[in-house]
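Mods, move this if it's the wrong board.
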Amino acid sequence: MLRIETSYFPSDNNSYIRFTTHFVSTRGTLKNYDGSMYWDAARHQLRMWYMSASGQITESPMTIDGDRWRMEFEGTDFDDKPAVLQVLVERKTNDLYHWSLAEKAGEGWKPLAGLDYARK
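Not the wrong board. Structure tokens:
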């Protein structure tokens, strides 16, 4: 793995934000995630959904608290077992963000992965 590239851009009608996540390695680029973030008027909440390259769809409400986005959803962990997962995206500066993934463990969260995104 050389890098992970994530891009955000408005939809053609400016009603939601589309995002893509590409994993770049020495063997090429895996275009793994493509999804959107949007306001769900019926539920009165921000939400996101994405589809992986393997066809799995993930949906989640999004909460934003200051510089932190939080998404909690059902998925699979790194052992491919069903799990409740949480993603946090925290803005450190206008050009630096920290992304982390955790799995529900009892009353708390077990960290699984994390990385920093730097705007280029």
